[in-house]
Structures are given as structure tokens and as C-alpha cells.
Write a sequence for this structure.
């Protein structure tokens, strides 16, 4: 185990510092602020493409965390560049909160208030404060937290409503993208709230926030995780009745380590033990149903009609952390081979060794799915950079 993990650490560290981070540094828009919003696989950059807040926030989180870990000045510069554009372009100074999308020069083109998007803002701003001890970014994160609790928290059945108008009024269409179901409550938003609130609690030990984190953990246990299949249910009505049978393997494995991290953060030993048991059951189900034992990596999703065998970039990244988390919890080397084989699949097929970064999606055998962008509002660096940094941190603390 030690030899395998040591080899992976060297490769993953090299990938982070010499491929992922330099690629995103190259996308900084020096003229209008922020980062270019659309780039093809062969680096054709649309400098007039809209800029999404999730992309900007994920870059803010990525370079803040990278600076803490590696200490390079250019990472601090990128963090500040992302923060300034968030303040100038995405912050709604009239109704408060964060806009969903702005044009290339920073003027809002979609003012909708998506709770998932605002969670990304909290995640990034709290990380910037954690690394650079910046009181303004912490204050902004707390403002966003209070907005979510004021407008989005649904007191009757628990949890959070997904989206609102720019002035925080209810809206009929809450979808994040055209392919999603129109549902008032979604797993995805609650998962991003979990990571955002956890990161905020690292730097702001507020009693109410701690209570909200415990509530979120219990929502996952009681409402979102299917107790029979150990898959996440994805879309719900207000009463937490599931609206689809689709399984997302990437979210399943991401949830395993996020839940563990939150339970450890709130310091409830009994809850942490319960969560670890659930996490291992979920990880085992992903290995059983979603892991490609032939080529390595995990599939995107499945539904009653069958599996989608394509492999998007972000589930592969989350598989690295999820398997490492399972190794830490159990000490069992049965999670080691899927970890190593998934990394091998990433290295051979998902990483673009010519133009940098990771391809958006590949076929089961690793062939690149063409005509999918390397950068777009959702194709951002935090999944793969975080997987690298999480692996390195977990390797360093693992006693083997």
C-alpha cells in the first residue's frame, strides 16, 4: 500500500502543479477581469463568452487552497484576481447575493439567485479568508449564509428551495440547466450547501451554523440517501418525494467523503461513526455498480433504461478522494486497486497532455468525446485540483 500510494502522490502532485494550475492561470482575463468563459479542447478561446459565477468561485477556491499548500505567489495573484471580479461583477449590490452569469465585461446577463451558485460563493470566500485572513471575504460569506437561511430554508419539511428571482421571489422554473428536472429541492444543491457550510464553519464557529450542518447531515441520511440501495436520490418535491430513479455515481462517491468531513467538523463522535458506516456502504455500491473493472474509472450515471458508460472528468476526480477516504476509514487495501486504476485511466485518457487540463468526457474505453468544451460555466478546476490536493493531504496524514 505504501509503495502504491507514494507513487500516486508523486504523479498527482506533478499533475496539479504542472498541468491543472498553469492551465487556469493562462485563462485570466487581464482586460475585463475574471477568467475566459469558453475554451475548446485545442485552446480556441472565446474572449466574449459569458462568465459564470460558479466557474469564478471555483477558481477562487482552487488558488486560495493551492497557495496555502504550495505558497507560490502566482496562486495568490489568481486568488485576488478572482475575488476582485466576484466583488465587482457578480455581487448584487441592490438585492444582495450573487448573480448567476455576467457578460465578458462583467455586466449581469442572468440575475437569478441559484442557491447552488451562492453555496459556491460561500465555499470560495470562506477559503480565501481561511488562507489570507481577509475579514471582508468572511463577512461576504456570512451575508450569503444569512440570505440562504432567510429565503431558501423551507421550515415545514426541512431543507432548501433551489432558486429565486433576482429580488428573492419564488420562480416557476428552478432548473440549473436545460437538461435538469424542474424540482424545488435537489440533492446537488444540498451537497454543495454541505461543503460550503462546512468550510464556513472552519473559520466561523457559529452555533446556529453548527446546528444547520447537523440538520444537513440528517437530511442526507433520512431523505436523500436511499437506505436500500445506498444511492443518492437526485430530485424532490417540497415534501421530499423523489422525482426520478436516475443514479449519479460521481455524486454518490463525492458524498461519501463530504459527509465524513462534515461529521468530523461538527465534533459529534456518534454521528461521525454512523456517517462512516454509511459512506463505506455507498462506496461499496459504487464499486459494485459504477466502477469499470476493465478499464478503470467510474461511469456517469444509470437509470431504469440502463447505464451511461461515458466518463466525465469530475466523477473520476471524486473517485480518487472517495477511495482514499475509504482506505483511511477501513485500512482495507480492497479500495487501493480501484484508486490506482482510476488514476491510471485519468492519466492515460482524461488528462490532455498536449493542451493541458482534463477533457470534459471520454468514452468507456477512453476515447475523447469531441466537441465538448474544456472550459464552460460548469467545467471548472475545483473537482480535479481538489482531488489532487485532498489526496496529497490525506497521504501526508495517513500512517502506513
Amino acid at each position: 500500500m505504501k509503495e502504491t500510494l507514494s507513487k500516486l502522490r508523486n504523479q498527482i502532485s506533478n499533475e496539479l502543479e504542472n498541468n491543472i494550475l498553469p492551465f487556469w492561470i493562462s485563462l485570466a482575463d487581464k482586460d475585463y477581469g475574471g477568467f475566459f468563459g469558453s475554451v475548446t479542447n485545442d485552446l480556441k478561446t472565446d474572449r466574449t463568452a459569458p462568465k459564470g459565477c460558479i466557474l469564478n468561485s471555483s477558481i477562487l477556491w482552487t488558488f486560495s487552497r493551492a497557495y496555502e499548500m504550495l505558497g507560490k505567489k502566482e496562486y495568490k495573484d489568481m486568488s485576488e484576481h478572482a475575488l476582485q471580479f466576484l466583488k465587482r461583477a457578480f455581487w448584487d449590490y441592490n438585492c444582495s447575493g450573487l448573480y448567476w452569469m455576467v457578460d465578458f465585461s462583467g455586466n449581469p446577463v442572468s440575475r437569478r439567485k441559484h442557491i447552488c451558485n451562492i453555496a459556491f460563493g460561500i465555499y470560495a470566500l470562506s477559503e480565501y479568508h481561511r488562507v489570507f485572513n481577509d475579514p471582508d471575504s468572511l463577512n461576504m460569506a456570512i451575508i450569503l449564509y444569512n440570505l440562504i437561511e432567510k429565503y431558501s430554508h423551507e421550515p415545514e419539511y426541512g431543507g432548501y428551495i433551489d432558486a429565486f428571482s433576482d429580488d428573492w421571489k419564488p420562480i416557476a422554473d428552478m432548473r440549473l440547466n436545460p437538461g435538469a428536472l424542474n424540482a424545488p429541492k435537489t440533492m446537488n444543491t444540498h451537497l454543495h450547501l454541505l461543503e460550503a457550510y462546512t468550510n464556513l464553519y472552519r473559520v466561523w464557529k457559529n452555533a446556529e451554523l453548527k446546528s444547520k450542518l447537523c440538520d444537513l447531515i440528517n437530511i442526507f441520511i433520512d431523505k436523500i440517501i436511499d437506505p436500500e440501495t445506498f444511492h443518492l436520490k437526485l430530485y424532490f418535491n417540497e415534501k421530499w418525494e423523489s422525482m426520478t430513479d436516475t443514479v449519479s455515481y460521481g455524486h454518490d462517491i463525492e458524498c461519501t467523503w463530504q459527509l465524513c468531513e462534515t461529521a468530523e467538523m461538527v465534533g459529534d463522535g456518534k454521528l461521525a461513526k454512523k456517517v462512516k458506516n454509511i459512506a463505506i456502504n455507498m462506496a461499496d455500491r459504487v464499486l459494485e455498480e459504477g466502477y469499470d473493472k476493465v478499464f478503470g474509472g467510474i461511469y456517469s450515471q444509470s437509470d431504469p433504461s440502463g447505464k451511461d458508460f461515458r466518463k466525465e472528468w469530475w466523477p473520476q476526480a471524486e473517485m480518487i478522494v472517495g477511495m482514499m477516504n475509504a482506505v483511511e476509514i477501513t485500512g482495507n487495501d480492497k479500495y487501493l486497486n480501484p484508486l490506482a486504476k482510476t488514476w491510471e485511466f485519468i492519466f492515460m485518457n482524461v488528462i490532455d497532455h498536449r493542451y493541458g487540463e482534463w477533457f470534459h468526457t471520454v468514452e468507456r474505453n477512453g476515447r475523447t468525446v469531441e466537441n465538448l468544451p474544456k472550459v464552460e460555466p460548469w467545467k471548472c478546476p475545483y473537482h480535479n485540483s481538489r482531488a489532487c490536493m485532498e489526496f496529497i493531504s490525506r497521504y501526508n496524514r495517513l500512517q502506513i
